[in-house]
Write a structure and sequence with these properties.
With 188 residues, this protein is an all-alpha fold. It is built from six helices and two strands, in the order αββααααα. The protein has a single domain, classed as Arp2/3 complex 21 kDa subunit ARPC3 (Orthogonal Bundle), CATH 1.10.1760.20. The radius of gyration is 17 Å and the shape is globular.
């Protein structure tokens, strides 16, 4: 009986690792789907997959997926927006958006873990909160890294992205419940 329980635990751990790795890869793919903007901050699908990882995988495994993604980029694989890589990217205009992913996925994943009924409306709200936090942290970093005022950074690093990020949050709310039900993550 005890061996049967260990196999089930091992199977669940493997499933969690596979999905954390899958989301790290999806975030990398999302970085290549981009629309250039001024101030050097492109519109990408990264944040869609970041938020999807958070609401589906929860705070622990969602955070693992982000850390894997960031490490892959820091060691030199071109997985950041525009095919960029390396640790120095953290000090450029998009650095704040990248490092905000860790905090946001942890908080959004934590909120998702608390919610028992993962309805589209609830998950949209959680994802929208995460989107706003990513944009705020990214804009503040943009101001400091580019030597521009906070207002200019907000106008260039928050406002143009807000409508698209709300649309991505709607999509997270619509996609995540079906995905969670289909895959049956249980207490991820």
């Amino acid at each position: 009986m005890n061996e049967k329980l260990n196999y089930a635990d091992d199977s669940a751990k493997i499933k969690k690792m596979v999905f954390a790795s899958l989301f790290a890869a999806l975030i990398a793919v999302g970085a290549f789907i981009k629309i250039p903007t001024f101030l050097g901050v492109p519109i990408t699908l990264q944040t869609f997959f970041v938020l999807l990882a958070a609401v589906i995988l929860g705070k622990n495994w969602g955070t693992v997926s982000i850390i894997v993604y960031l490490i892959v980029g820091f060691v030199g694989f071109p997985v950041f927006a525009g095919g960029n890589s390396g640790f120095s990217i953290l000090f450029g205009p998009t650095g704040g958006y990248l490092y905000s992913f860790i905090l946001v996925v942890f908080l959004v994943g934590w909120m998702s873990n608390l919610v028992r009924k993962k309805t589209p409306a609830v998950l949209f709200g959680i994802a929208a909160f995460g989107s706003i936090l990513i944009l705020l942290i990214g804009s503040i970093h943009l101001s400091f890294s580019s030597g521009i005022s906070l207002l200019t950074a907000f106008e260039g690093g928050f406002l143009p992205f807000f409508p698209g990020d709300m649309l991505k949050s709607v999509m997270v709310g619509l996609v995540a419940p079906a995905f969670i039900k289909k895959v049956n993550f249980g207490d991820f």
